[in-house]
Amino acid sequence: MLLACCRSYLGIDMHNKTNNWMWHLLFVIALAAMGYSIYSASQKIDYTWQWNRVAPYIIDDSPRETYAEYDGIVSINDSGIITVEFDNGDPDLIIDKADDVFVSDGDFVFLGDVISSVNQRSMGVLLQGLLMTIKLSLISLFFAVIIGLVAALMRISTNPFSRNFAFLYVEIIRGTPLLVQIFIVYFFLGTIFDLDRFTAGIAALSVFTGAYIAEIIRSGIQSIPPGQMEAARSLGMSYPKAMTYVILPQAFKRTLPPMAGQLINLVKDSSLVSVISITDLTKAGREVVAGSFATFEVWFTVAALYLVLTSTLSFGVQRIEKRLAASD
Questions:
Q1: How many helices, marked H, and strands, marked E, lie in the chain?
Q2: Who contacts 205 (Cβ-Cβ below 8 Å, separation ≥6)?
């Protein structure tokens, strides 16, 4: 009897594994079909792919050239140090490192002449835009969590003023487009309080995301059984202490998945600040398109960079969820 059960179990297990491999194979075939469809569509519009144009905007390995700021005379000593003595009396230009030198000792240079160049490798425009997107998202998330936590506590408050004020904030922010809010913050509040575009972008993203985080935290707090608060108060804890040490830790654990989703949305929403000339990844992509004319390649690259960023965040949150689940 036991042998028959084992054979039956092994047979079901092998059957499931075979089915899984078939579904994985079907998935790969579907991806290949999608890739071929995209390639065929590009052939129909007679587009020549030039991915080599995008590479310098990711990693810039072009030489850094040094130009003459004014007219002057060049002198080069035995150590290879280049000194340009300007005619107008400005401090001398001293170059102690150069891979290529385009002048000789005693030459007279004019304003704008190339004196030397240094081979280097630095971040291109797209990677700089990606870093700006990350910076915007992290700073905005920090303030959004604070705003959301305060608004959530006001939403569950017994004080009608606090509750109504928080309700009004959440409804107005969630009921209007982020793009409109960015324009209002930058052109109206920015003019009143003399905000630069970066600060205005952070403010708009923080207030917008804070409204959604407020609802996430509120639902998390209200999902905790009322007995938790009653037990904490019966132990002599004040309401703020019970909320801080008993309710909020449990609520944050329950709201981690939707909070992670909101963070990913924030990363994508940050692309809208490009309308007020903040050079994030999206605006950097527009600048590269204007300079390289590689429209499809650039936007596919921008999409891939966003995907890498959001996938990394998603993977990190999944690891945190597993750790929290193991600690229960």
A1: 13, 9
A2: 136, 137, 140, 144, 178, 266, 269, 270, 273
Higher pLDDT: 229 or 301? It is 301
Q: For residue 6, what pLDDT is reported? A: 52
203-to-23, 103, 276 alpha-carbon distances in Å: 46, 51, 13
Listing DSSP states for 84-119 in one string gives EEETT-PPPEEE---SEE---TT-EE-TT-EEEEE-
**Residue 251 CB burial class (10 angstroms; 0-12, 13-18, ≥19):** buried
Which residues span the domain enclosing 79?
Answer: 61-122
Q: At 223, list the tokens.
A: 């999902």
Side-chain-side CA neighbours of residue 52 (13 Å): 1
* Maximum Cα interatomic distance, the chain, rounded to a whole number of Å: 103
Task: Quote the Cα angle for 105-109-114, to 5°.
Answer: 95
Residue 213 has a pLDDT of 93
Residue with tokens 């004014």: 70
CA dist 130 and 142 (Å) reads 18
Separation CA 236–CA 258 (nearest Å): 33
Q: Among 122, 149, 169, which residue terminates a domain?
A: 122
Phi first, then psi: what are they for 67, rounded to 5°? -110, 155
Q: 226 is written with which tokens?
A: 């009322």
Burial (Cβ within 10 Å: 0-12, 13-18, ≥19) of residue 233: middle
> 164: pLDDT confidence band, cut at 50, 70 and 90?
very high
279-310 confidence digits (pLDDT tens): 888 999 998 888 877 888 889 899 999 999 88
CATH number reported for the structural domain that contains residue 77 in this entry: 2.40.50
